[in-house]
Amino acid sequence: MTGNKNYYKIKHYQSINVTGYWFSMRSEIKGFTLIELAIVLVIIGFALASGSSLLALAVKKKSAETDSARLVSAKNSLFSHSALNGTLPEKEGFAPAVSYSSDFGGRAVAYIYDDTLTEESGSAEAVCRRRTSKLELRKCRDVGCTDYSVVRNIAFVTVSGGANANIQTGADEAGIVRIYIQGDTVDDYPADGVKKQAYDDIAEWVTLGELQARSGCAGYRLRILNNELPAAYTARAYRANFFADGGVPANGRKYKWCLDDSGLMSAGVLKFTSANLDIKISSDCRNETEVSWTSGDNVSITGTPPSGSGGSYYISVWVRDNNDQSGNDDSIANKRFVLTISE
Questions:
Q1: Which residue range forms the structural domain that includes residue 91?
Q2: Burial of residue 242, with CB atoms counted within 10 A of its CB: 0-12 exposed, 13-18 middle, 19 or more buried
Q3: What is the pLDDT of residues 156-207, one digit of tens each?
């Protein structure tokens, strides 16, 4: 700065007034133009938006991973409950039986189960004794679920509502559970209100066979207990019994029986009864209707073989349980015996 002692030499000349004198100054400070500032703000906005989107995706991924892990944990807890108690818990017993009964957001997990596998079914070993379940799962290939693959004999399903916090998976009156393609607009779970949104449920399901395998059920399948029959003699009174166990007996531990026809029965050498009723005799027991079989807890063989009836006789014994009360899908067991009658 020149011409006056009050001048200050700085870059970027400007006109300023100091004690009545005008001076020209140059500033060291450089500023942004409005265009530059706008560009910077746009860049910052993009960065914030990208960061926000990435954060939302990270939270969504973490939520889905946590929900999946919790459903697997609940499944394993139900395996343990079944192995210990022989049954699945009722709806009210689900939360106490599992480690996590809610999802990442604190919302209750949906528990869909076959009530014939619970203690309320009346059987202490319901899981191990059943042959089939009432639930069927359909993996839908379209929003109307007209095209699907089927998994039958489902024991239970657990469901988390996903990111939209809306459970959309349920069982209808026929026991059909539908799993839709992610993004389909549906809602099959009216318990939390019908809100048709993009499907994003996370689900775990277990078949009855898998549950039985994890519950140690080998000894509970329907079977005939006898391995052989005592020998018989002509002109001597004879008595023996066939016994069954396992499966799902009807009230009073009753099963249903049928014997394949043989010379022993046809000739009337011995009498086969259950609860004082003659046992059904057939040439094809397996294909006889259920109602034609004879009900009872065991089969009695009685009589006195007459002289001249000595020999070896094959007896094919069939037993069925009450697994399917309204149909023919019962467990059936068969065993062949040889009865030797000596003169």
A1: 67-218
A2: buried
A3: 999 999 989 999 999 999 999 999 999 999 999 999 888 899 999 999 999 9
Same domain membership, residue 74 and residue 170: yes
- Decide if 32 is inside a domain: no
Residues 267 and 337 in one domain: yes
Query: For 285-296, what is each residue's pLDDT tens digit?
Result: 999 999 999 999
- We report the CATH number of the domain holding residue 318 as 2.60.40
How many domains is the chain built from? Answer: 2
CA distance readout (Å), 235 to 110, 267, 270, 343:
67, 15, 12, 8
Residues 231 and 338 in one domain: yes
Model pLDDT for residues 262-316, shown as the tens digit of each residue:
777 766 789 999 988 999 999 899 999 999 999 999 999 999 999 988 899 999 9
Beta strand pairing call for 176-179 and 135-140: parallel
Q: pTM to 2 decimals?
A: 0.74
